[in-house]
Amino acid sequence: MEIGEKLYNEAVKLVNERYPLGWGGAAAIRTETGRIITSISPDVKNDALALCMEVGSYLEAQKYNEKVTHSLCVSRESESSKFKILTPCGVCQERLVYWGGDVLAAVSNLDQEVIFKTLRELQPYHWLGAYGQNL
């Protein structure tokens, strides 16, 4: 099974377990050792405290001191809706920069295929360039 399919399946499995009814979303990442880590966004009472679905996985990768190689995020509107692949938001892209411009992130597309793009492709004009550094 290819990496994209495996990450997609793990994220969907977590959504179906954690959110059997209604909206659901989850992330799955792969590290350089092949470890797959999944996470959800925490439930909060105050929206100002919300975090993206991927953050828990990124923190776990840091805990294990492992480089993230792939990141994928999915959501659905209800238990009967199709899943959508979500490109990482700008903040999560910045979080992924920690591991370099070659990190592969799944991107949104109408066909809902698992398509990965490097951070370098997602951010060709990243601010690090102003300091003579490559992403």
Automatic annotation (TrEMBL):
Question: Which segments cross the bilayer?
Answer: none
Record carries keyword Flavoprotein: no
Mind listing the GO molecular function terms for this protein?
Answer: catalytic activity
Record key words, sorted: Plasmid
Q: Which NCBIfam families match?
A: PRK08298.1 (NF006155)
Q: Under which name does UniProt file this protein?
A: Cytidine deaminase
> Which organism does this sequence originate in?
Thiolapillus brandeum
